């Protein structure tokens, strides 16, 4: 596996174009009116990813009050995202990155051990992007159970 990049605060956020719920393309430029919390997660409907998504769902009004839009990204299909959204009552956008384009440019793909076997997967990560498209934070390897509240606390500080 090739060495992955690691983004840092102060860098321009990499541009992306990914399909949203209606298969229409969504780009970074679509979020110029607010700051963006772009979070990458491994898989729809798994325990950790559901915990994290519910945290964002339950605190969405708090993030919005601070001027942030929340968007999740995984390698799952648009159809899978729609089912995940509907099952969990998610109130924010999920984008499908089946070809791992955004996952690669944001440096979230890594080799992991799963059930004793090596595999390539998404490292749970979050990027805080200001309205000018600049990274305010690049957080790799965040924990599903505590991440959302820790992120909210740091943005309020």
Quick overview:
The chain is of the alpha/beta class and 157 residues long. It is built from 5 helices and 9 strands, in the order βββααβαβαββββα.
Structure description:
The protein is α/β, with parallel strands linked by helices and 157 residues long. The chain has a single domain, classed as Glutaredoxin (3-Layer(aba) Sandwich).
| Largest sheet, strands/sense/barrel | 5 strands, mixed
Gap from first CA to last CA: 38 Å
The level of helicity is: 25-40%
CATH names the topology as Glutaredoxin
Please tally the β strands and state the result. 9
Averaged pLDDT: 94
CATH homologous superfamily caption? Glutaredoxin
The succession of helices and strands, N to C, reads: EEEHHEHEHEEEEH
User: Into how many domains do the coordinates divide?
Assistant: 1
How are the strands ordered across the major sheet?
A: 5-4-3-8-9
What is the beta-strand fraction? 25-35%
* Main CATH class: Alpha Beta
Radius of gyration: 15 Å
What sort of overall outline do the alpha carbons produce when their principal axes are compared? globular
Task: Briefly note the structural class of the backbone.
Answer: alpha/beta
Runs in which pLDDT lies below 50 for 5 or more consecutive residues are none
Per CATH, the architecture is 3-Layer(aba) Sandwich
Tally of helical segments: 5
């Amino acid at each position: 596996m090739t060495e992955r990049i690691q983004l840092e605060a102060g860098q321009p956020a990499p541009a992306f174009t990914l399909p949203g719920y209606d298969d229409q393309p969504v780009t970074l430029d679509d979020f110029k009116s607010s700051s963006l919390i772009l979070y990458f997660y491994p898989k729809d409907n798994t325990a950790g990813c559901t915990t994290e998504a519910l945290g964002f769902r339950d605190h969405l009004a708090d993030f919005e009050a601070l001027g942030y839009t929340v968007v999740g990204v995984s390698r799952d299909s648009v159809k899978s995202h729609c089912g995940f959204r509907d099952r969990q009552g998610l109130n924010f956008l999920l984008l499908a990155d089946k070809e791992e384009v955004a996952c690669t440019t944001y440096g979230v793909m890594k080799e992991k051990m799963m059930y004793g076997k090596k595999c390539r997967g998404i490292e749970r990560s979050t990027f805080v992007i200001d309205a000018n498209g600049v990274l305010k934070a690049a957080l790799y390897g965040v924990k599903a159970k505590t991440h959302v509240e820790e992120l909210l606390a740091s943005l309020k500080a």
